[in-house]
Specification:
Blueprint lengths: L14 E9 L7 E2 L24 E2 L1 H4 L6 H10 L11 H4 L6 H12 L7 E8 L3 E8 L2
Antiparallel strand pairs: 1-5, 2-3, 4-5
């Protein structure tokens, strides 16, 4: 279970202006590491030790099409008619860093001066377990 606490700001303030979060557990069957259980179906200990896990199982045709790459980022920018010079991506530097991608890119953009106080930032991500979300932030 995840708990997320967010405080939205007024339209005139810096901070979170809007967000949208989703998850879909339907795709869980495509990627997983099942836990070996005992004869009555229960896990023997918690947290399970390493030998409790079976081999990772993956439906590659379903999972690989969602792998992050620059082509997807460019296609989204093109579809939204967003200028390429305003897209911040560090995928070429680090590869897919999953949940850390947006904060890493934002930190680099702030340090380099690409993002300044008063700028409005739209961030979107797609992650493990078929989760996705977006946020609009006014940087302060």
């Amino acid at each position: 279970m995840y708990i997320l606490l967010l405080l939205a700001c007024d339209a005139e303030e810096d901070g979170l202006l809007s967000f949208d979060l989703h998850s879909d557990g339907e795709g869980a069957r495509h990627l997983g590491a099942p836990i070996n259980d005992n004869e009555n179906g229960s896990v023997l200990e918690f947290p399970p030790n390493r030998s409790s896990y079976a081999c990772v199982q993956m439906n590659g045709k379903e999972v690989f099409r969602f792998a992050a790459n620059q082509r997807i980022i460019d296609a989204v920018a093109t579809r939204l008619e967003f200028p390429p010079e305003k897209v911040i991506s560090n995928l070429a530097n680090y590869g897919n860093t999953s949940a850390a991608s947006i904060p890493l890119a934002l930190d680099e953009a702030v340090r380099s001066g690409k993002v300044k106080p008063g700028h409005t930032i739209a961030a979107a991500g797609f992650g493990a377990g078929l989760t996705w979300g977006s946020a609009v932030i006014r940087w302060g």
